[in-house]
Design a protein that fits this description.
Number of domains: 6
Strand content: 5-15%
Helix content: 40-55%
Number of helices: 31
Number of strands: 15
Mean pLDDT: 92
Low-confidence stretches: 713-733
CATH topology of the largest domain: Tex N-terminal region-like
Distance between the termini: 88 Å
CATH architecture of the largest domain: Orthogonal Bundle
CATH superfamily of the largest domain: Tex N-terminal region-like
């Protein structure tokens, strides 16, 4: 099948014009990235969005792989001298890999089988004679194939060998395989039971000790849980169908009459089904359902990761970040507005030291010295106690918001090569505290330093296809990074590596150039970076920002290739580009149709005008400070019926996990997410969302919390959101007077 035929196929599936598919594939083949194509080549693709471009990318890769397999199969069968016109036509018409493999199976080189041995004994003609079902007296025919030298001692041996050949032929028949495959899809049941003697050891799989449900409707999380139980040798998993129904379906295709031949075929069918066909199709179904479960789980992970990466940033604020702890104390660091480490220390406000006064003094002194504008506290061990301690500092200005920050993956970052490179002279605790503070300022910029899998917002992430998971998550990170844009002069090499077209090596080169030559003054200066060619510049430059660049558009998402258009707009209105940016009335005078060219159309022109309105705008939501219930700190504080503010930490197929501030997330089961039926939890909640929940059950011993969002439902989180504060600047003189007051309090 030619590429053109593939384009038509994809266009029909996506319900778009074939020209759009063709143009998109050509751009991809030339090395263009998905973010670049969807953002800067709208005229070429007909304004296809990122999701459509990714779908085209995945489909053309899949179909091309299918074509490669088709060619390989045709070549193999032709090499055996067995390629007929009829078989060739069937192979060329096959639309799925399973159909192709079914057609190839009889010709596929295989290890020695019972049928192979029978053929070597010269019994294949007898098998075909039986399949023809034209012989009424079969025993006399079987006698003709007795050959003691070949190991055929008796007519019964000949018939047994013929049945082996028929069994293999039936099990390799493409129509039969598709029939049984459909039977499995429509009627198969997945069953699990506990391995005898493993009941106590395998308690975490208790729900599946005796379980069954329709195979194809089994949710992703249950399928992966059952497979994990099987892998860890706690469960036996079987996929079953009605074997009698399967036998009858096959017999209808092969048995044409009632005679001795039919009886032999019937025996061969039952043997072949049990020994060959059923295990083969069951293996296929295991693989298929695993792939479907993986796809769903990976998509859940990807959706959660996107929400986490695009969480609202506090912005460029000076921050006091605290990694809380009891015995070892709380690591405290001060960061400037660019995230640079200014000072670090340890305080001991909790048991067993309980040096509260000293700790208060240190916090106030650091806040005053560095004019800190926010306090970030990691949500791990001692987090609520530390929050209570900070809020208990009476003279701490109320203008300084106290914010809980997720520590997910922080320990992995602390021990990573990235962290060692950034802070080689500091220990793990300092690195962890810095990461907590930076996450508050800009979650995206900090989280890209982690392997996405370590962030912990997926379900059964270690059970799914790891290559597929990595590719999907990398795509999400790239989408988020390019969607937000990257400040060229402050970005880490990890963040830069996700910018369209750059990659790890070039990101390193950019940082080295920046360190040697100072801040970039224009986007064009990027071309001086080692290995930065025109093609890569085209791919990346629009996503990089220079806040104080020479050209006023360097801080925007307008691509350098379009600067001339804005310059012409300004010239036509007898003003500067800065005037266009600052004057709304001037922008209203722009007649977009006057700037349409063969390559630039209305979609791009509209994007340009939108950028002029707010150059380099951050698409993320405005930051809102969240506070847990101040009376709830541990599981023991929870009571049924309590209504609490919470933060969604993870969304799965079966519900959402919510942090209510007790060091243990509670589960809002999918049935408790809304007063109405919910098919997909992601429709109702997102990672990082602030919600209100009601405690329905709390098992302190097992550390399990059941929550509900029923009643006022999700709308309650919109109408009555958890407590908000505004992160604002403050007068440092107020801080100094507050510190003086605190010192006076210490003396008293």
């Amino acid at each position: 099948m030619t590429d053109t035929a593939l384009f038509f196929k994809i266009a029909a599936e996506l319900k778009v014009d074939v020209k759009q598919v063709k143009a998109t594939v050509e751009l991809l083949d030339e090395g263009a990235t998905v973010p670049f194509i969807s953002r800067y080549r709208k005229e070429v693709t007909g304004s296809l969005d990122e999701v459509q471009v990714i779908t085209i990318k995945n489909e053309i890769e899949r179909l091309r792989q299918l074509e490669q397999r088709r060619e390989s199969i045709l070549k193999s069968i032709e090499g055996q001298g067995k390629l007929t016109q009829e078989l060739s036509d069937k192979i060329l018409e096959a639309e799925t890999l399973s159909t192709l493999e079914d057609l190839y199976l009889p010709y596929k080189p295989k290890r020695r089988t019972k049928a192979t041995a029978a053929r070597e004994k010269g019994l294949e003609p007898l098998a075909h004679l039986i399949l023809a079902q034209e012989t009424k007296e079969l025993f006399p025919e079987a006698i003709k194939f007795v050959n003691k030298e070949l190991g055929v001692e008796h007519p019964d041996d000949a018939l047994a060998g013929a049945r082996d050949i028929i069994a293999e032929m039936v099990s390799e028949d493409a129509i039969v395989r598709e029939t049984i495959r459909e039977l499995f899809k429509k009627t198969a049941i997945v069953k699990t039971k506990v391995i005898r003697g493993k009941e106590e050891e395998g308690q975490k799989f208790e729900d599946y000790f005796e379980w069954e449900e329709p195979l194809m409707s089994c949710p992703s999380h249950r399928m992966l849980a059952m497979r994990r139980g099987e892998k860890e040798d706690f469960l036996i998993l079987d996929i079953v169908v009605d074997d009698e129904v399967a036998h009858e379906l096959i017999k209808k295709q092969f048995i044409k009459s009632k005679n001795e031949c039919a009886d032999q075929i019937s025996q061969a069918i039952e043997d072949g089904y049990k020994r060959l066909l059923h295990p083969s199709i069951e293996a296929e179904m295991r693989l298929l359902t695993k792939q479907l479960a993986d796809e769903k789980a990976i998509q859940v992970f990807a959706d959660n990761l996107r929400e986490l990466l695009l969480a609202s940033p506090l912005g460029q604020k000076s921050i006091l970040a605290i990694d809380p702890g009891f015995r070892t104390g709380c690591k405290v660091v001060a960061l400037d507005a660019q995230g640079k480490l200014l000072e670090e220390t340890v305080i001991y406000p909790h048991e067993p030291q309980r040096r509260v006064v000293d700790a208060q003094h240190v916090v106030m002194a650091m806040c005053a010295k560095h004019q800190l504008e926010a306090i970030a506290i990691g949500n791990g061990t001692a987090s609520r106690e530390t929050e209570q301690f900070i809020r208990g500092i009476e003279v701490l200005p109320k203008t300084i918001p106290v914010i809980m920050v997720s520590e997910a993956g922080a320990s992995i970052y602390s021990a990573s090569e990235v962290a060692r490179e950034e802070f080689s002279e500091y220990d793990l605790t300092v690195r962890g505290a810095v990461s907590i503070g930076r996450r508050l300022a800009d979650p995206l910029a900090e989280l890209v330093k982690l392997d996405p899998k370590s962030i912990g917002v997926g379900q059964y992430q270690h059970d799914v296809d790891q290559t597929a998971l990595k590719n999907k998550l990398d795509d999400v990170v790239m989408s988020c990074v390019n969607g937000v844009g990257v400040e060229l002069n402050t970005a880490s090499k990890q963040l830069l590596s996700y910018v369209s077209g750059i990659g790890e090596t070039l990101a390193k080169n950019i940082v080295e150039y920046r360190n040697e030559n100072g801040a970039f003054k224009s986007r064009k200066e990027l071309l001086k970076v080692n290995r930065m060619g025109e093609k890569v510049f085209e791919q990346c430059s629009g996503f990089l920002r220079i806040r104080d660049g020479i050209h006023p558009l360097d801080k925007s998402a307008v691509h350098p290739e379009s600067y001339y258009i804005v310059e012409k707009m300004a010239a036509d209105l007898n003003c500067t580009i800065d005037d266009l940016i600052n004057d709304k009335d001037l922008r209203k005078k722009i007649n977009l149709t006057a700037y349409v060219t063969d390559t630039i159309g209305i979609p791009t022109l509209k994007d340009i005008v939108n950028e002029l309105e707010k150059p380099g705008r951050d698409p993320r939501k405005t930051f809102e400070v969240f506070s847990f219930d101040e009376h709830v700190h541990s599981l023991e504080d929870l009571r049924e019926g309590m209504r609490l503010p919470g933060i969604v930490t993870n969304v799965t197929n079966f519900g959402a996990f919510v942090d209510v501030g007790v060091h243990q997330d509670g589960l809002v089961h999918i049935s408790q997410l809304s007063d109405t039926f919910v098919d997909d939890p992601n429709v109702i909640v997102k990672v990082g969302q602030q919600v209100w929940v009601t405690v329905t059950e709390c098992d302190v011993k097992r550390k399990r919390i059941a929550l509900s969002m029923k009643g006022e439902g999700i709308s309650s989180s919109k109408k009555s959101t958890p407590k908000k504060e505004t992160a604002t600047n403050y007068d440092p003189n107020d801080m100094m007077s507050a510190l003086a007051a605190l010192k006076g309090k210490f003396k008293k």
